Amino acid sequence: MGILRLAIAQINPVVGDLEGNVELIRDLIDKVEHCDLAVFGEMSLTGYPLEDLLLKPGFIADNKNALNDLASMSGNCALVIGFADSDEENVYNSIAICHKGKIVGSYRKQNLPNVEVFDEVRNFSPGSDSLNLFSIGGVTIGFVICHDLWVPNGPVKTLVDGGAQLIVATNGSPFHRGKQQEREILVNEISQENNVPVAYVNLVGGQDELVFDGGSFITDSAGEVILRSPRFHESVLVADLSVEKNITTENYLPVIEVSSRRDHEGIIETSIAPTLDTFEELYLALMTATRDYVLKSGFQQVCLGLSGGIDSALVAAIASDSLGPNNVTAVMMPSRYSSIHSLTDAEQLIKNLGIASVNFSIKDIHSIFLEQWALNLNEEILGVADENLQSRIRGVLLMAFANANNWLVLTTGNKSEAAVGYSTLYGDTAGAYAVIKDVYKTGVYDLARWRNESAGHEIIPNSIIEKPPSAELRPDQRDDQSLPPYEILDPLLKSYIEGDRTRAELVEDGFDAKIVDEVVQMVDTSEYKRRQNPPGVRVTRKGFGRDRRLPLVNRYKG
Amino acid sequence: MGILRLAIAQINPVVGDLEGNVELIRDLIDKVEHCDLAVFGEMSLTGYPLEDLLLKPGFIADNKNALNDLASMSGNCALVIGFADSDEENVYNSIAICHKGKIVGSYRKQNLPNVEVFDEVRNFSPGSDSLNLFSIGGVTIGFVICHDLWVPNGPVKTLVDGGAQLIVATNGSPFHRGKQQEREILVNEISQENNVPVAYVNLVGGQDELVFDGGSFITDSAGEVILRSPRFHESVLVADLSVEKNITTENYLPVIEVSSRRDHEGIIETSIAPTLDTFEELYLALMTATRDYVLKSGFQQVCLGLSGGIDSALVAAIASDSLGPNNVTAVMMPSRYSSIHSLTDAEQLIKNLGIASVNFSIKDIHSIFLEQWALNLNEEILGVADENLQSRIRGVLLMAFANANNWLVLTTGNKSEAAVGYSTLYGDTAGAYAVIKDVYKTGVYDLARWRNESAGHEIIPNSIIEKPPSAELRPDQRDDQSLPPYEILDPLLKSYIEGDRTRAELVEDGFDAKIVDEVVQMVDTSEYKRRQNPPGVRVTRKGFGRDRRLPLVNRYKG
Fold first, then answer.
1. What is the pLDDT of residue B246?
2. Do A372 and B388 make contact, defined as CB atoms within 8 angstroms?
3. Which residue would you say has higher pLDDT here, A247 or B29?
4. Which of A195, A453, B434, B511 lies in the 20 to 30 Å Cα band around A480?
5. Catalytic residue from among A35, A77, A98, A146
């Protein structure tokens, strides 16, 4: 019985930062030297996804030079590193196997996702080389990359039939709610069907709208999870895998000999990180994405407009939890229509979180806009124009705070608002990162309650959670004057947006026809706003970023 | 010798407007009834590109119903209509051949572009049916769709070898500068190589960031253009094609008999629209895209901030030329730093164009922001924060004008500014459509001069063209204090953006190393601004829309 000492290196690279990522990987080489094999995630050398950086021949050359540098540092432990390979005509999503100073082999991803947020057919060509196996530590291993696992007739069966005793999959698999369970179900089936253990290695950390949640794992040949890395944290876990399987096959694939069996001292106990409950994983996803967007962009501090409502309260909590309360400034900007409870609620939250705050009334600025308008045009600004005006004055002030202090502005709009356009472009949507743009309003309440429960005491004041939501841009305004109740709106939005249902189908599904008509029209006619909204983390199967590409001019009314 | 009477129906459909597009095509059926064949462009029934509308099964069903409606109206003239075909699993970019009330055949595009602005692999599956020919008016015809022409080993050769006497290509080919010439060179080669006439039918009109420029044409079997539709205008042109070729082949493809030879009265003289010079075609592209974005979005009127500088002057001229002077309001918003000549230049332009105008000084509003800031924070707003503040006050006012009057705001930034981030997010970038976002600053001057020359008198005052460019956000500001001269900057930007050159390669190309470093850094660090910029027409090979998808968090310094 052989023992393969396998390190699962779940790292958080930065897109385009070849030097930094080389350093990140290099620093782990010593730590894994006692192992036979250390596996890093998809495109671990370059960060992922690179998008059109891959169209730059100079970048491809630089990434290959960086890989050579890393390979030259490799020792007894074989390293599996994701990079962009190329030949004269094409670029490939690839891994290199590095050992004792050399690149000893590679694999090019054969199945390229070009759905949802992925554009891999745009940026890569599919690998079409005949398959190889690698003998590492005396175990015969087949490598695949991410989407290769998810398609029917992927390369796994060929690799196993060809003699693979272990499948190693490197992944850049972004989070959406429930994704970890989907991964483990898939890999469980693959292990069982092929009677083979699988090591699934993911990236971790935020990249623009995506957050990689880690949760790398190993299944045994019965599909049982025998190791799981923590979610949302970098980690290097080691497993001693006993690979007993006897192979008899007529379809042997060529095997590249990398390293022979080593004797390892003792047996390393593998650890299995616990699964997370649905709100905890969502909250961690929002925290991780926000933190990484801010820090990877070279900023330390953020500000946000704190209205006293639930959305900005939740965003303030996430910002404080992810960046530290010292790095967050809440800006209160009451107008003539702001209620007293909004200010007291906001102040209580600021106290609970321990974040900095500024109180900057917009009353006088708002007044002079109205006066000047009347003076120049002999008419009043009324209705939506006046509501938008107040929101935009706040946007201008927040951006002035950001400019003056080198802060990033976090925006606080939720997915329900973004969907129906219940927002002011350049007003409340103005900022660098939209923390909860993919969380429906009902989910915002869930997360606020969860945050308080997990703390064991009130962080977000209950009065914020309990009061009826209002934009407070005119006297006695309430959301339910413009929108259906969120308990009705949110499931309808989910069906329309994530389910791609038409108007007629939604009515068939049991939604009220009048509400369907109103909501579908609101969603369709606010595409132009979403196109100019800031990026924010995707946590569902279909966010409003690269996931949902609709024309602006679009007269389809279905 | 047979005569095929062929109508080239160059139409301007609206994306998603199945009802409207059916009407548009139906209205032409009578007019082409004397012809044997009328060809409409790619996806002519649905508009193009549909993007993720194609992910909605209900939309596919509706589009097939609309096609059946149209087919039932077809008579003696066979109609070729672009639509989205589907089977149980896949959606195809297709054409249907309709004749005497029925769909008599179809073709599914085999080669799907997934580069530049195109995501066809995301939204379609490639056709893989075996090829057919169609006998229409006694002539054997092979059909292809757009990208099928541009790939090596496309279906044309198989069709011709199989007996096609005429190739008909339906296209949704968007404009970039010089594109018509590229098309005609390509089709000339195809005709010559295959000794076959080719009818190339394009769409016309604006759709979001794309503008289809028409310019449909027919080549004879020697590759000579014998018909050309006008650029940027809808038109139905008819040609009597004499197809003499005798076919001898061993690879006959199956032929679907549609209609036999008809006797036509007289011979119709075909017309050949003239080619356009480079500035005229660019100006028409900007006009067409702007007009269609505004009108297809359901608006009539626009406003824009008119500073007295060259960019807003050109945009005002384009808006006035495309929408009519009565539909354009120029808003002058001088600040404490605006020069007198800016106001007088702007007023002269307004007079020359005959557009409406408002003069709304931002001095008092600017002052109260500064006062309130000092009052609340005991500090001054200085430097870039103050410059941005002025620009954002203007953005707020323009949006208030738009909200109060149901106007769209046109923005006036050029490609050089967008590239280096010489703009204020939510300030001068605030608006619905960015008319010259893909025109470099040097091109803005070229177009302004061209507009005056083509009018034969001064439309855009020469003083605007001749003065040094300035943002006028601080005393004595000039662009060249922050940026290299545009004559140096623009070619560098073009190499970096459209040429995908790295820093090192640009220096090798002969650009000054210090300037390269500065400019590349400015371009890279302003990606976040571009992500929130409004859409605007693409007129180069690589615009800042769906053409160039770069990560926001991106530390590559090459």
1. 59
2. no
3. B29
4. A453
5. A146
Pairing relationship of beta strands A133-136 and A217-219 according to DSSP bridges = unpaired
Could you give the CA distance from residue B553 to residue A293 in angstroms, rounded to a whole number?
7
Q: Return d(Cα B477, Cα B264) in angstroms, integer.
A: 69
Contact A372 B392 (CB under 8 A): no
User: By the 8 A CB rule, do B93 and B214 touch?
Assistant: no
> Which of A119, A376, A399 lies at the smallest CB-CB distance from B388?
A399
Q: For residue A2, is pLDDT > 80?
A: no
Predicted confidence band of residue B412 (pLDDT cuts 50, 70, 90): very high
Choosing among 3.60.110.10, 3.40.1440.10, 3.40.50.960, 3.30.360.10, the CATH entry for B2-265 is 3.60.110.10
Is there a contact between A49 and B551 if contact means CB atoms under 8 Å apart? Answer: yes
Q: Where are the domains of chain A?
A: 2-271, 279-480+527-531
Predicted ipTM of the assembly: 0.95
Catalytic residue among B35, B98, B146, B303: B146
Compute the nearest-CA separation of A4 from chain B (Å).
Answer: 36
- The closest CB to that of B554, out of A53, A119, A425, belongs to A53
pLDDT digits (tens, 9 = 90+) for A422-469: 999 999 999 999 999 999 999 999 999 999 999 999 999 999 999 998
Q: Is the torsion defined by CA of B145, B149, B150, B151 positive or negative?
A: positive
CB contacts of B122 in chain A (<8 Å) are: 114-115, 119, 121, 549
Q: What is the least distance, in Å, from the CA of B506 to any CA of chain A? A: 11
> Mean pLDDT throughout B223-227?
97
Residue A120 is a catalytic residue: no
Between CA A381 and CA B538 the distance in angstroms is 35
Nearest CA in chain A to B370: A365
* Residue B189 bears catalytic tag: no
pLDDT value at A26 more than 90:
yes
Does the pLDDT of residue A240 top 90, yes or no?
Answer: yes
Is-above-0.95 flag for pTM?
A: yes
Q: Do B551 and A207 touch (CB under 8 A)?
A: yes
Q: Would you call A146 a catalytic residue per the annotation?
A: yes
**CA nearest neighbour of B144 among B217, B244, B248, B39:** B39
The Cα A335–Cα A343 span in angstroms is 11
**Is domain A279-480+527-531 classified as CATH 3.40.50.300?**
no
Res A266: pLDDT: 83
Q: Which residues contact A182 (CB under 8 A, 6 or more apart)?
A: none
Q: Does A399 sit within 8 Å of B369, measured CB to CB?
A: no
Dump pLDDT digits (tens) for A280-323.
999 999 999 999 999 999 999 999 999 999 999 999 999 999 99
The rounded distance, in Å, linking the Cα atoms of B15 and B31 is: 24
* B43-58 pLDDT per residue, tens: 999 999 999 999 999 9
Residue B249: pLDDT band (50, 70, 90) is: confident
Closest-CA residue of A relative to B535 is: A531
Instruction: Identify the CATH homologous superfamily for domain B279-479.
Output: HUPs (3.40.50.620)
Which one is the CATH code of A2-271: 2.60.40.10, 2.10.70.10, 3.60.110.10, 2.60.120.200? 3.60.110.10
CA-nearest of A530, A505, A519, A509 to A429 is: A530
Query: Which residue in the set A381, A531, A551 is minimally distant from B53, CB to CB?
Result: A551
Is the per-residue pLDDT at A246 higher than 70? no
Backbone angles phi, psi at B439, to 5 degrees: -115, 120
